[in-house]
Structures are given as C-alpha cells and as structure tokens.
Amino acid sequence: MRLHYAYGTSYCVTKMKKHLSFLWLFLLATIISSSGQTLKPKSIDTDGIVYSMAQSGDTVFLGGSFSMLGFNIGPAALLSTTSDVPDRTFPIVEGFVYVSIPDGSGGWYLGGSFSYEVAGETRSSLAHVLPNHTFDPGFDAQPDRDVQKLILSGSTLYTSGSFTQIGGENRNYLAALSASTGKATTWAPQPDNYVADIELYESTLFVSGSFAQIGGKTQIEGQNRIIIAALSTSTGKATEWTLQLDGGISAMALDGNILYLGGGFTQMEGQNRQNLAAVDLLSGALTPFAPKVDNYVNDLSISGATLYAAGDFSRINGILRPFLAAMNTTTGQVSSWNPHPNGPVYQVALSGTTLYAVGNFDRIGSHRRPYVAAISLSTGQIVNWTPEPNFFVYSVTVWGNAVLVGGSFTFLKTTYRDNLAAYSASTGKVLSWKPGAYGTYIYIPFKPPITGRVNVVRVQGSTVYVGGDFHYLGGQPRLNIGALSRTSGLATPWDPGANGKVFALEVDGATIYAGGTFTRIGGKSRHYVAALENTSGTASPWNPILDNTVHALAVNNSTIFVGGSFTKVGQQDRGSLAAFKKTGGFLLSWNPLANGRVYALALDSSLVYAGGSFTQVGGQNRSYVAALEMKKGLATVWNPNLNDTVFALMQGQGYLFAGGSFSRAGEQPVSNFAMLDTSMGAAVGNYPQFNKPVHALHYHSASSTLHTGGQFTFIGDAARSYLASFNVSPNQSASDQVITFHPKGDRTLLEDPVTLEATASSGLPVLFSVVSGPATILGNLLTFTSAGTVVVQASQPGNKNFNPAPVVVRSIVVRKAKATIQLDKMTTLYNGSVQAPTFTTSPANLPVTLTFDGSTTLPVNAGGYEVVATVNTATYQGSASGFFVIRKVRQQLRVPTIPDLTVGGTPYKIPPTAANGLPVLVEVISGQVKIENGFLIPIGPGGGCIAFSQPGDANYLPSGKIQRCFTIHPAEGITHEVWASIPSSLVDIHQLPSTPPTSTSTITSFMAPSNLGDNYFARVRAYLLVPISGEYRFHLTADDRAEVRLSPDEDPSKMARIAYLRRATKAGRYHDFASQQSELIYLEAGRRYYIEAVMREFRFKDHLSVAWTKPNGTMEVIPGANLIPFTSTPSLEVMAAAARQIPPVPEVFLDNFTASPNPFSDKVTISFSLANDEEVRLEMYTFQGQLVKTLHVGKAEAGKVNRYEFESGLHANGVYICRITVAGKSILKRLLLHR
C-alpha cells in the first residue's frame, strides 16, 4: 500500500490532455421546492440544447441539438464501491481533473486544470472539497498552471505540476502548502523541470523527473540529468542519494523500506532493469527484483506480497500481460492474474478484493468497460460496476467505500443519441429507442443516424413525427421532416421532404400540419406552411402562400392558427399571426397584427396565447406575450408585461407556463421562466431560476409534470443541463420561498457604495445586513470603511402566505484602492556609483519601495535587475515591475606604434594596462617574436604583428582588437674570434688565451672562414634559436682540434661539451668519428641557448663548421637566421633566473642520490639515503629556476632509503632540476621530461 495519500497521473495523462473534451457543469441532485413547481430528482441531462419534447404514456421524446444523455457531472465524480451512480451533491469544476486524494475527514483535494466558483470568486486547478460537499472558501492555492500530483502529510499538502506560482509564492513545479489555507510554506526545492511523480518516505520526499537542478543539487557537467532526487521535508534540500539511469521514472510505490520504481528505462546503477526496479532505501542498493517489462509503466500499487503494475506494456518476462499485471514483490514472478484490457492503463487503486483501473481502454477481456473498470483481485474478472464515462478518466482514488474518479469526461452513465432520444418519465432511464441505430450504435462516416438538429417532435399512436434541419433520419434519407416507429426508432415510409427547415408540427387526425422556412414540401409548392396526409406524406390542396417563416402552429376543432415572421398571406396583410378555417382552408379575418415575430402559440377555450419578440399586438401594447380573443383577435386586459422574448408557451393546472429569455414579469423578477395566472396575467408562485433561455415546454396532465428544455445549465443552485422536469401543483398557503442573492465580486476602497441585489421567489422585499467586516449598510447601499472581507446576509422574514426564506450569505473582499506606478529610465550606463530608475505614481507622490532581484539595496555593477516598485499605504496598493539594466561601458585602447626591432636587440616594453586600469592582453599574430614578462622579444628576422585587447569585466565591454605591425631586422652576424701566433706547445683547447683576440669578425652562419693561417685558436659563439620544439643532434667538422659546447639556457657558465674532435677531418665530413655528433638534445622553440665552438689550428689547411639535424630529420649548417650575436649583457630570462636566487651549484652524482628513469615520460622516482639523521629538503625546479614542487621537507632517518615520485602531469617537456639540500649543502640533478 502507498504511504500517506499519494495519487496522480502518469506520463500518459499529459499526452491525453491534447484530446478535445466537452466542459459541462456538474449536476447536483438537490430538490428545489417552490410553490407550484418541484424539481424532479430523476431528471437526466443532455449535452446540447433541447428544442422540443412530447410525452406519451411514460415515455418522453426529446428533440434538439445534442449527442448524449446521462448524468452531466463534469470531470470529477464521487461514486461508491457498491454503486456506479454518481453522488449528485458533489460540487462542480470545469476542465480536467488529474488527481484526487482524501483529506482524512470525509473531504477531498482535487488537482488538475480546472476552474470553480467559491465565495463569489473563480479559483483554479486545486480545490478542497469539504465533507458537506461544498468548496472550502478558506483554501486558496491559486496555482498558475495545472496540478498533477498530491500527497497529504499531516498539515502539509505536497503538490507537483506545471505551475510556477502557487500558494502566493513563486514555486517551480513542486510545492508544500498548508492543507488548511493553501498558502505555500517556505519549503522550496525549485526544480528546473516538470515533476513526473512524488512519493513520501518518513522525512524524505522522493521526486522523479529530469532535472538539471533541484533542491540545491545541480547536474554534474558531462553526466546524465538528475532523474530522481530525495528531498528533506524540513529544508527542501536534496540529499546525496540519487540513482543513475538511462530513462525516466513515472511511477513510485513504497513497501516498507523498499521503493518500487516504474517508467521507461533499461539501465539503473549500471545494471539491467527494464522499466521496473526496486531500491532498498536503507542500503541504497538495487534489490534483485528485476522483471522485464517491454514498455512504459505508468502506475504501481502494492497489496501484501503482490505488486500491481499498469502501463503501456504488453509482456512481462515474455509473458503476455497487456497493460495490467500482477507479480511477486520479491521475485518479480508474474502471476496468472490477467484482466486483459485492450488499451493503456493510467492508474490503479485497491480496495478490499477489488482493483479499480482507469485508462484509454474500452474493454476488459470480452466485456465493455470504457475508460474505467472494477476488477476482482482473485479472478481477474470484471465486477458489475459500470460508470460509463463519455471521455477519458485519468485518476481513481478509493477511501473507505468512496470511489472518486477524475478526468476529462463530463457525463456518467452515458447513452449516445443524436438529436433524438426517449426516456422514462418515472425512472429517468434512457430508453433503447435510437432512431437509425437498429438497436446498436452504428457509425456511418458523414452519415450519422441524424444530422443537424431537431426543432419539433410530435407523437400520435405508434408514430413519432419529427421536423428540423437534417438529411438522414432513422437510417433513411429524410429531408427536414419525417416519421419514426415509436418502438423501433426506424424511419417509416412517410417522407414529405421539405426544402427548408421545419419549425412547427401539429397532428390533427389524418392531417399533419407543418410550418417552417420551406417553399416545397409533400411533393408540391407550399410556402412556409402546409397540410400533409399522414399516410402518403403528400401535400393536401390547402395552399395559403405566406411570404415568410412560420414558427408556431396551433389547431382546435375548427381553426388553424399560425405564428411566425410573415407579413402577408396571399394578398392579405397579416402581422406574424393568421388563422385559417380547417374546413376549406380559407383565411379568416382574425388579424391581431403583431409588430414582431411570434414563436409560440397556446389555445384556451376562447383565447389564443401568443409569445414572441413583439411589443404590440391585438391593438394594444403587449410585451412578448399576450392573450387574444379567438374570434376578433383583440388583446384582452391580461398583461404579464414580460421584458424579453418568449420562445415557448404551455397550459396546465390553470396556469400559462412561459419560457424564453426574459427576466421580469411586470415588477416581479423572474429568470427565463414564468408561471402566469390565466385570469390576471400576474406571475404567481415561486419560480425556478433558469440561468439561460428556455426553448421548450410540455405539460403532461396525467402526471402533473412540466417538462422543460432549452439552453440552461442551472436551475437555481441545482445543476440541470438543457433538460428538467417539475411536479406542478396549485399554490399552497405558507409556502416556502428562496432568495436569489447576486454576488458582487471583489471591490476596492474609494468606489461608490455598492447596490445589493437580491430577490425572493415570493416577490416579497429582501432585507440586508452586515454580518462582519469593515462596512456599513443603509437599505441596500453597502459602504466600505477599510480593506478587508465583508460578509453580508440577505433575508426575507415571510408573511401569512410564505415561510421565512433561508438566509443567504455573500462575502465581498474589499481591496485597497489601486495605485499605478510608472517606471522610467530603465536603462543606464555603469558609472561606479549606485543607480536606480525614476518613477511616478497615480495618485501622485505616494511612497514607493524599490527592490532589485528581491533586495532593497541599490545596484552599482552592470547587469540586469528585476525591479519591483510597490505602493502599500492604508488606502492604496499597487505595484509595477520591469527590468532595470545597467549597461557595460565601452572601452578603448590607445596603443602606440611599435618601432622596428632587431634580432638580439633591446626588447620592447609593452604598455601594462588600459586607461580604466584593467590589464591588457597581448597576443602574437605573426612573425618570429615572443612575449615575456611584459617585453616583446624578437627572435628571428622578418615582419611581425601583435594584437592588443582587453576582454572586459562585469562593468566594461570588451575592447576591439588593435593590431600593430613592425619589422624585425636580422642580426648583423655572429662573432668569430681569432688568437694568432700561438706557440705549438699550447694544444689544450679548454683554455683560451687570456689576452684579447688578435682579430674579431662577424660571420652569417655557423661556418668559420677556412685557411686563415697556421697556429691559432678560434672561437665562434652566439645565442641559438630553434625553429620548433623537439630533439636536435649537433655535428662538428674541423681541422685540427675542436669542440662544441651548449648551455641549457643563455647563460655561458652552464655550458657543457656536446661534441669534439681530436683529429682533423675534411670539410663537410661530419661522421668520421663518433665524438663529432652529440646525443639527441631536447630544445624548445622561443628560448635562447648559448652555443660556442672552439678550434686549435696547427698548420696546413684549416676549417670549422657546426651543423644540426632538426626534428624533421633534415641536416644543415646552422644558418644565421637561427643565431643571434652573443652579448655579455644578461637577457631578461637570465635576469629573472638570477632574481630567483637559485644557487648555481654544479651537478654532483652520488650513489645514494638517484633518479629513475631519466629521461622520463610519465613519472620519475627519486631516492636517497643518509649516513646520519639529517634535516632534508627535496625540491623540483624548471630549468629556468622556477620551483615546481616540494617533495620533502623535514628529518630523514639514517640508513633508510627515501623514495619520492614526481609526475609529469601537465608539465611541459624539457629539462628539470631536482635539488636536495642536506646540512646546508645543495646537490642538483638534471632530469629530462620527454613524452
């Protein structure tokens, strides 16, 4: 069983909302008593207007524009486990109901997309129905969109839906409300997307959906969205608990600490779970429960060790179980229970031995059960419980023996009939009479049993005559007129066929009189009125020839009376009324001459009652209804003086019943219906208050029953849709009376006093008084003194003829007068100080409070701020909102022209900041140049360009890029030094003479001039630039002795020999001796390396050149483009290294200080051991002296091998220095990182 009361719709409901639905009013089964008419409780409803009715025996025949009959109860119906007939006292909502839960005290909460009326207000989408089946006026949640799920826990109502505001607060998709007031609590997880389902477990609310954030928890970039979250019911914060799955969860059910999950997924926590799974909430682990469901699961419910699943699936574990199945909660084994619905099931509810299911099906097994069914838990067979809704049911909830269903339906116990129907007057049951249906409903595309509408129905014996606007009737083509069998509903052969609408029929023996808009009927030309033979349907010779429509007919023993909108009969003037002699059919002199249309006629022994849209008739002012002398056509003194059109008239019990669209009879307020005294014309008795026009009346004298039809949907406070019946009896002394008190809606201060309007059905004056609230009353004028809720009551104490009326109370919410606020200057530029928009108020000079994104602090920084301006005084209240924007300021850079540069020359100092103090970004666009420590350093000749930009910040826009180009001149050459006349005894090239060179020249590549002489020393030195980063091999050729030395940077003191010769080689021969070639050396582009070659010439030929093999495998003499003249002035790089004060300690190789592997690509292990306990510091530096990592600081024990690892990580390739300091002495070791 579910904990608490958690009910809702599955994902399917969202899809089904797209279907069209009729939105009719809910039908209450109350009985309204009045002197003269008692509303019969067994009245049924239609879904469209009833224009005509006739009763024969116990059968009432209806004609109109409708498609179904039944109980019109709206989208929520309260049934019971023992009865499928709705409780007609349950209140009405208009729209869709997606969820319902009991309040635990006999009431209900309803959620969906609907509206309803309470306390004179229209509210929406979430309602509390009290145990007495009235809406709770104190519960006012007012969500701005629909509500899908509800859970009641104590005094808190958890709700989810597509709303963003509810309970007076901003709450996205999920909220906690006060169960008594509907106001939102502070609990606000604020998910960013629609919530699929909610389930409560102790102090945790589980929420499923697809979220990027919820309860302060945010989706991790690169990972799946949050599908399910666990929220604290006290804080709304999401716990760390979650599940990883590849689909959605639309259903949850709890069994102790086991949470069952259904939806559309195939993987959960890395394990195979196909649309159904279970999680142990104590351990957080999936249970072994893993049935394989082949499609979506929409709902789950648990009874004992059985889990019931509803959805869109057809098989579970390969076993055929369409849409509804039962399985073991531990093993997932499917039971033999198999109801076999023929469509998706949205929701289920359990009660005792019965399961209630709702969904998009119309059969359970072989039995018809549209949209809702009750199924035995033991057999899987249907229970005899058939509500028969006319459209979708989305939710079902059972509480005790009450069953509440919600959906988009409007009718229960639905019977489909097209514009014609018959029902039992005694039981209210719709009869099987179904014209053209042959006992079962047959749908013929474009040819339904009867199309259009029926305007008039008359019965004679076994035949029902029908007129209207249609083309098919009783299964046969019939044009606007036809006859049906009273028993079968099939069309008889009678087929006069009219080429226009038929509004009136009267049966008189063997003659059928017809009136309408036709000009041909019965096979002959007949203008607007005709007499037809009841056997052949042929028009009789009678042919009056009217000039316009006939709406009404009445026939007595000698005369045919005709009413309509005509002005002539033949060549005779007649104003909408005429009379003809039955014998011979000639026009009589009777000519009341009405100045408007006549829609209804009724006959008394000597009078003709006429109703319509006229205001003059029979020579007198008579508004809309009149009594005319049958002989002369003069109006009698009888004058009810109605104030609008009459559509129907009927006599009975000494009264003339009138139906139409009027609201007064003389000085007596009425509502679309009046029971008129036939002697004086006064409206008498208490009147049913029809909310819309009455079009049809039929009085059945044998049962004293008045049948009414029309456009109405309410009679007083009782819901009656288009059809109602009354027991009619003469006036009684001391009759009951009721008050109709028209609500006034909300009001504001400073308005004129409100005129209260209420009428008593007795016609007696109504008294008003203030029950509570800030108001005074004088007569019927209500004056408000301050804001608040004013409760006013209307009463009528009665007299000798009428009992006191029940008091009627109305509430009026008085709000403060509205103030308007105009916000101006909503856009400005950042200036470093606080800013705000300006405003004006109406009335002027009212105090205004401004908030920016909810804070009263004025903004300084650029950005967009939601600004709300509020006026809240004792009298005025108002607000305005907008978006206040502080725009970022544009910025410009002023960059000077860059002078030409020379390779090896003075670097260019780059401007440090923009004018606003923000740092300037500089990037190289082209050329052999680098940027280092704020200087532009040329490293090769040619053209170059750099770009200056400033990306901006919170208050400044990015600057545009400014490009500056310049020329880089090549170096003038590299230094070639010669010491001549060297004694032959000096042969060591490691020590050059201490005297200045004999000559110094410049050369353009690393090839010295050859055959300069004998017995001299020579040196070529420069700074080396490599074109690309990579491994280089150097080659030496010389005559006689020579060697090449290279520094890891531009500091000559760090140089080391990399190649040498002890014997001469021929020029250009680099591979005679192994010592001529260096090892592969990794060098980085953009850096300078000091390089020199030293040579000792004895005699004969002499030459010297240094070449390299580049990373791409090409070999060449090092060109001048990659050489910069040596200067003794330290470069920026050398000065920076010196500033870091790393002592240039020579590398010392010790057995107890090792690094392996070296070179390394991933990591290197450094180890050392000591003879004594010592304080040790072990550090890793770049080759330029920047500290990268401290590996160890502290005491190291004697005799222990200490090992530390240095990982390459994101470090660049190159040479690194590992320094160990022991007892004040530092030892360095070079390491090469090469990937």
From TrEMBL:
Protein name: PQQ-binding-like beta-propeller repeat protein
PROSITE patterns: PA14
Domain PA14: residue ranges: 969-1122
InterPro entries: MBG_3 (IPR043772), PA14/GLEYA (IPR037524), PA14_dom (IPR011658), PQQ_rpt_dom (IPR002372), Quinoprotein_ADH-like_sf (IPR011047), Secre_tail (IPR026444)
Source organism: Rufibacter hautae
GO cellular component, one term: plasma membrane of growing cell tip
Gene3D superfamilies cross-referenced by the UniProt entry: 2.60.120.1560
One Pfam family named in its UniProt record: PQQ_2
